[in-house]
Design brief:
The chain has twelve helices and 17 strands. It is an alpha+beta fold. A hairpin with a 5-residue loop joins strand 1 and strand 2. Helix 3 packs across helix 12. The radius of gyration is 22 Å and the shape is elongated. It binds glyoxylic acid and manganese (II) ion (2 copies). It holds the Pfam family M20_dimer.
């Protein structure tokens, strides 16, 4: 008989799976480089599938490469509860960003099997393709297509730095499924994730009850100057795209600081062309990433950055094109599901607090098509998108256990 007391997961089994997955696509400093649609991604998918087969799950794969692993429910008419995250990583990523959410969902299902729990609603453990957006912008690409926000053609045409397309790479690794994207209907969506920020650890809390996610714009700038010799070109004859970029970087910092509290802005990727020590760059491409939970503030920052960038470029004589390659509005998660997460943490005796997610997640797009929410656990010093990303076995267990209970609440245990 299933009682509240024995609704526990196997934290050691979860940890062992996390460590085994981390062996695929090792980084150079203890983390992972398992970028989307690489051979390493394919290897991770195969391992995950093996584990899902062992847990008795059946697989569906959609045309974006997202994996849906189903544990049947008892009611043929009941829509599934989806639980997932992503197995792809940043180029210098950690072992837990995304992976904890996928393997935590798998652990929840394994524990249901151990305990002989049947649920009314099916449960679908989900590995979304290209959450990170490191190789193909934007982030959360497959869930955006699933939610109908981006088209599959647009997604397939996205290119990496070598000019390879999403569509070609998906076929190459053998994970283009046949399911039409977005035709599945969800009863609810849950996602477990590490916080990727310092708040839970600083506050000494085990669990973040995620009520909102901040919105984002990724603005890809292409600045066009004139390639010229760095030694023989007089200062007043230069059309230096690199100088314009430097001024824009400083300006983005000013705009984000002026919008405090509750706003961030920065640049994580830039390409100089031709990138030679003694050639002034003729072309510079970089992406500004701005975020805020406040819609008006987010859009105001974008407008100010675009107009000030235009003035900076005009002053230097540099051409300026801006392509908004990634966007989502701030998200409010479903109160009923948020309540289930809080209740689960309380029943299990874990300390908890409300959180606004600073990072984007597939849950943000799932929230467009179903009630959705997230569970967060702390990470050491708030470090993420860094190979040094670390969590404790206890934090992982607590997060997965809260996920397990909240999912059961929604999927409804059948006695
Ligand atoms: C996704 O990982 C993001 O928040 O950039
Ligand atoms: Mn993630
Ligand atoms: Mn990430």
């Amino acid at each position: 008989m299933v009682t509240g007391e024995n609704l526990r997961i196997d934290g050691d089994r979860l940890w062992d799976s996390l460590m085994e997955m981390a062996r695929i696509g090792p980084g150079i400093a203890g983390g992972n480089n398992r970028q989307t649609l690489t051979d390493e991604d394919a290897e991770a998918r195969a391992l995950f599938k093996t584990w899902c087969d062992e847990a008795g799950l059946s697989m569906g794969v959609d045309q974006m490469g997202t994996m849906f692993m189903t544990r049947p429910g008892t009611d043929p008419d009941a829509l599934p509860v989806y639980v997932g995250s992503h197995l792809d990583t940043q180029p210098t990523g950690g072992k837990y960003d995304g992976v904890l959410g996928v393997l935590g969902a798998l652990e929840a299902v394994r524990s249901m099997n151990d305990l002989g729990i049947k649920t009314k609603h099916p449960i679908v453990v989900t590995n979304w393709a290209n959450e990170e957006g490191a190789r193909f912008a934007p982030a959360m690409l497959a869930s955006a297509v699933f939610a109908g926000v981006l088209t599959q053609d647009h997604a397939y045409s996205r290119t990496d730095l070598d000019g390879k397309t999403y569509g070609d790479e998906l076929k190459r690794i053998g994970w283009k499924g046949d399911e039409e994207v977005g035709t599945r209907k969800m009863h609810a969506y849950y996602e477990l994730h590490i916080e990727q920020g310092p708040i839970l650890e600083a506050e000494g809390k085990d669990i973040g009850v995620v009520t909102h996610c901040q919105g984002l714009w990724w603005l890809e700038f292409t600045l066009t100057g004139r390639e010229a010799h760095t030694g023989s070109t007089p200062m007043d004859m230069r059309v230096n795209a690199g100088l314009a970029m430097a001024r824009i970087l400083e300006m983005v910092q000013e705009v984000a600081m002026a919008a405090q509290p509750g706003a961030v802005g920065g640049v994580g990727q830039m390409q100089f062309s031709p990138n030679s020590r003694n050639v002034l760059p003729g072309k510079v491409v970089f992406t500004v990433d701005i975020r805020s939970p406040d819609q008006a503030k987010l859009d105001g920052m974008r407008a100010e950055i675009e107009s000030r960038a235009a003035a900076i470029c005009a002053d230097i004589g540099v051409g300026c094109a801006i392509d908004p390659v990634g966007h989502f509005d701030p998200v409010t998660f479903a109160p009923e599901l948020v309540g289930n997460v809080r209740k689960a943490a309380e029943e299990l005796g874990y300390s908890h607090m409300n959180l606004i997610s600073g990072a984007g997640h597939d849950a943000c797009w799932a929230a467009q098509v179903a009630p959705a929410t997230m569970v967060m656990c702390p990470c050491v010093n708030g470090i993420s998108h860094n190979e040094a990303e670390e969590i404790s076995r206890e934090w992982a267990r607590a997060g997965a256990e809260v996920l397990f209970r909240a999912v059961l609440e929604t999927a409804e245990i059948v006695e």
